[in-house]
Amino acid sequence: MLLNLQDIEGEDFIGRLIVADLDGQVAWKDVISxxxxxxxxxxxxxxxxxxxxxxxxxxxxxxxxFGAPTVNGVPTWALKGRWDAGESVTDIQExxxxxxxxxxxxxxxxxxxxxxxxxxx
Length: 121
Fold this sequence. Notes:
By secondary structure, this protein is of the alpha+beta class. The chain has helices at residues 5-9, 29-32, 76-84, 89-96, 100-109, and strands spanning 2-4, 16-19, 26-28, 39-42, 45-50, 58-60, 70-71, 74-75.
């Protein structure tokens, strides 16, 4: 739970948040506020993290693949493993039923340099 530190400490703390736990860690609103929009909430609890933004298909959901980053339920590490084995984006996307864009986002998340992207099928 986040509290506005200004409400507790006064005007000297405008724009600063505090994490309301035992340690009271300070957070900066301008640093973390955009992160709140990256989550889907259920009953007030952040459940799905849309990495980077909601238009990016890479997500972390603790209920899918044990919380590993996934694209439509496919762990991104599996996409990278196939890439590292020499398979093309086309082969990978067809085998997993993903679009080209979804496959590329998953590979980019795993650090693949897609300048090599024109690998033969």
